Amino acid sequence: MADRWGRFSYPHGPSPTEESLKMQAKYAAQYKATGRIYAPEDCAALLKDPAIEKFGWIRENTDRFFKFKPRSVRNAVIWALLIPGAMLYFIKKTPYLKPEHSVTTLNE
After folding, report:
1. Residue 100 lies in a domain
2. Would 101 be classed as within a structural domain?
3. Rg of the chain on CA atoms, in Å
4. Distance CA 45, CA 21 (A)
5. Same domain, yes or no, for 9 and 34?
6. pTM for this predicted structure
7. Is 8 helix (H, G, I), strand (E, B) or coil?
8. H helical segments located in 3-82
9. Hey, which residues does 8 pair with through a beta bridge?
């Protein structure tokens, strides 16, 4: 959640904003020491979006936090039992129509 200044806390892993600022300070120090400006590919840490980094971290670590709750049980039952079961039922109950003449001849 955001505090009153608009900053967000990141309970799931390191704060991408802070990590990006650390990398920015590192590259600024390298520029002071060498006088060389690096290409954006060499400074990829400066181009990180905090929302994407947070989403990626949570997605990679879902096994740590997953629990079967009523909503996840409902979704599992619907998608794993009801839908395949309904499809099987309708496939079995649909009459199979055999063609009267499966082979046609040219003389007819």
Report:
1. no
2. no
3. 29
4. 9
5. yes
6. 0.39
7. strand
8. 16-34, 50-60, 62-65, 70-77
9. 2
Residue written as token pair 């496939």: 91
Per-residue DSSP letter, 2: B
Measure the CA–CA gap between 7 and 54, rounded to whole angstroms: 14
The torsion of the CA quartet 14, 20, 22, 23, rounded to 10 degrees, works out to: 130
- pLDDT tens per residue, range 38-60: 766 666 655 667 788 888 888 89
**Token pair 């704060």 is at which residue?**
15
Domain that holds residue 33: 1-46
**Digit-coded pLDDT (tens) for 43-102:** 665 566 778 888 888 889 888 888 899 999 999 999 999 999 999 999 998 877 666 665
Rounded CA gap, 33 and 30, in Å? 5
